[in-house]
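Running log. JK asked me to keep both predictions on one page so they can be read side by side. First protein, sequence followed by its tokens:
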Amino acid sequence: MGTTRRIVNITLDNLDDLPWPCRQCVFWELDPVARQHAEDAGDPGLEKEAWISAALLEWGSCGKVCYVNEVPAAFVMYAPPSYVPRSVAFPTSPVSADAVLLMTARVLPDFAGAGLGRVMIQSVVKDLLRRGVRAVEVFGDTSWHRPECLLPADFLLSVGFKTVRPHHRYPRLRIELRNVLTWKEDVEAALEKLIDSMTPEGIPNPA
């Protein structure tokens, strides 16, 4: 039985496939005060659902989930900065008016180290190119040491982002989408190549 793989948009139907604690995290979706209120109320996940719903209705796709053998393997989230209150809190803000903000991404441990993070960034670029977006920006973390809400700056530089606002901890990076029009590797082809390179023992099968 072969390995199946697919990348789909995040919706309210598959939101529960995001790993814990990402499913409940509203670091990006709410300003710090509103986030604290949501956490004190006991269910920030409801606020995340409301945010996803509003983003889908008003702007469109705001994230991707990758499945391998129907097991969630990775996800990524992105939106215009006007939808992301937390974006103004960084010392290197604001995000440029012509850019979409790459909020966060994560590869689950069983799939780490095989290049799936790069594939997820490619999936974002492919989606936004089709929608006429000019650029993607992101706040990197130069001191990243474990999965969290921000992405490691070194990883972002390795997949094509360039620093546009330096900072000792939280540089703002950017990728011009017109510069990646020449990317030869289609997202699905890249994903297939990636998964085929994994050892069978490392790929979970659904129960």
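And the second, directly underneath as requested:
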Amino acid sequence: MKRILLKLSGEALAGEKHTGFDEATVTVVAKQVKQLVDAGTEVGIVIGGGNFWRGRTSETIDRTKADQIGMLATVMNCIYVSEIFRSIGMKTQVLTPFECGSFTKLFSKDRANKYFARGMVCFFAGGTGHPYFSTDTATVLRAIEIEAEGILLAKAIDGVYDSDPKVNPNAVKYDEVSIQEVIDKKLAVVDLTASIMCMENKMPMYVFGLNEENSIVKAMNGQFSGTKVTV
């Protein structure tokens, strides 16, 4: 694939601490992405904010405000991770759907394409810029907008299962599953809004475990061992 959108979970980047940043984990991710960029792949990245805050972390705060805190958590994550990327020799830019002063640039497809043409990794922070939409939805939206050929979902789990493997030891992993089946069976690869957007815009997803050795590179070079979600 010439251009991909990589989704990283905030919790995964926190490593065993489960909160904040784990620099060793992020550096491993950065080195893998550098291999892709050096091979000519254009990489956009969306990062969740769960290592700091989830939209419903507090039941007392207004949902809109809670979601705004979550959006800012993703901005912090993208700024941090982009700097780790820079430290190993990549060029990066963080784009947001709202103004963040001099911290980020305002997102537009044209601006993203300009940065891709310069060999830069684009971080899409701040979600969609609106409450009630998850980073799953932001991931699919940005992938569609930048005309990515596929979405790489790097998760804490190594693929899509017919039930929760943490609860059911007999859960069966899919090698390949259609987005229609994901929706019909409520397999929760991404949330329903994101799933429908993938289906309507024919955006395939590749789901794999971030913690597996060299998993991002393997997902791109034919050694993929996760689940392909077809459209």
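Observation for JK regarding the second prediction: The longest helix spans residues 63-87.
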